[in-house]
Design a protein that fits this description.
Shape: globular
Strand order of the largest sheet: 1-2-3-4-5
Radius of gyration: 23 Å
Order of helices and strands: HHEEEEEHHHHHEEEEEEHEHEHEH
Helix content: 25-40%
CATH topology of the largest domain: Dna Topoisomerase Vi A Subunit, Chain: A, domain 2
CATH class of the largest domain: Alpha Beta
Length: 311
């Protein structure tokens, strides 16, 4: 019988250390502190944790990996880790094998019912949801029924995907995602105004607000940054925004609808300063709630209360 002490020792071993000792030929350097395995190149290892994007499963240590990925029993997994004397054998120096990034999209589910229900629950208009599904830029993943928001290049090929759990918790990107091709909507070749958001759901929430107010939600161009910590380019703005501006040959104005918190406001100020003199920059920080989706839900609830009081 395995003791609790041995179980804890096994749980303390991270996957990167275990593979460097047990099977170093499996490790491939992906970028910075991130590695993948030669057997599963969509399985990424970073900061002591790992996530297999194509299967949407992950873990915190080597024990999770042996059980969930390699199919070991719990007892065999513990015995394998302890039998390797991992701590004593960890090699020094980096693993230098490099692979080219390739997008690994989660497998599509047969229907999008759960994602549609989830987005309707967040207040998103059904016509806007259907439009995204019909364009192939939104779908439901097979294993965990997450919402997958796809960014495409000019040929319509997927180059990026943001993944949002429909049951709460996980938010991330598909392995191999290129932020330069972040989730967007609209005709960038004709639009005069670009609206910028931190997340796809905020983008769809804003379109819902435009439609609720009787506006034309298909007129402008819309971009989700997929977060505000992206790398910088020669223009000083994040590369996804830089590319969107290059696509928009007729753009005159940029609305910044970033989150109403300290990081969001700081990022908006930074972008506004960098775009000053090139575009008309408008502060679109939500006046209600932390982000555009919270703002949308608060407005919907206010309307419902008004309707109930009017009865």
């Amino acid at each position: 019988m395995i003791s609790q002490r041995d179980i804890q020792r096994a749980r303390d071993v991270d996957l990167l250390s275990f593979l460097r000792v047990n099977d170093p030929g499996q490790l491939v350097h992906f970028s910075k502190d991130t590695y993948c395995t030669r057997e599963h190149d969509s399985l990424k290892i970073n900061n002591g944790k790992w996530y297999w994007f194509s299967r949407e499963i992950g873990g915190n240590n080597a024990l999770d990996y042996l059980i969930k990925v390699q199919g070991y029993s719990f007892e065999d997994a513990v015995s394998t880790i302890l039998g390797e004397n991992v701590y004593e054998k960890i090699p020094k120096g980096p693993i230098i094998t490099v692979v080219e990034k390739e997008l690994h999209l989660p497998e599509r589910n047969r229907s999008n019912d759960i994602v549609i229900r989830y987005l309707l629950g967040r207040g998103i208009d059904p016509e806007i949801i259907r439009d995204c599904i019909n364009k192939g830029i939104l779908y439901e993943s097979c294993r965990y029924h997450s919402a997958v928001f796809v960014g495409q290049d000019e040929r319509g090929d997927p180059r990026y995907a943001a993944i949002r759990s429909t049951s709460g918790g996980y938010k991330g990107e598909a392995a191999g995602s290129n932020k330069e091709y972040a989730f967007k909507l609209g005709d960038f070749s004709t639009a005069e105004t670009l609206h910028v958001f931190e997340a796809p759901i905020d983008l769809l929430s804003y379109l819902t607000l435009v439609k609720m107010r009787g506006g034309n939600w298909k007129r402008d161009a819309y971009l989700s940054l997929g977060g505000i910590s992206g790398s910088k380019t020669g223009t000083g703005v994040c590369k996804q925004l830089d590319r969107a501006l290059r696509l928009g040959g007729k753009l005159e104005a940029v609305w910044l609808h970033l989150d109403n918190d300290e990081p969001g406001r700081n990022a908006a100020q930074r972008m506004a300063a960098q775009l000053k003199g090139k575009y008309k920059v408008i502060d679109g920080t939500p006046q209600l709630g932390k982000d555009i989706n919270e703002c949308l839900q608060m407005i919907i609830e206010k309307r419902k209360r008004g309707e109930r009081n009017a009865r």
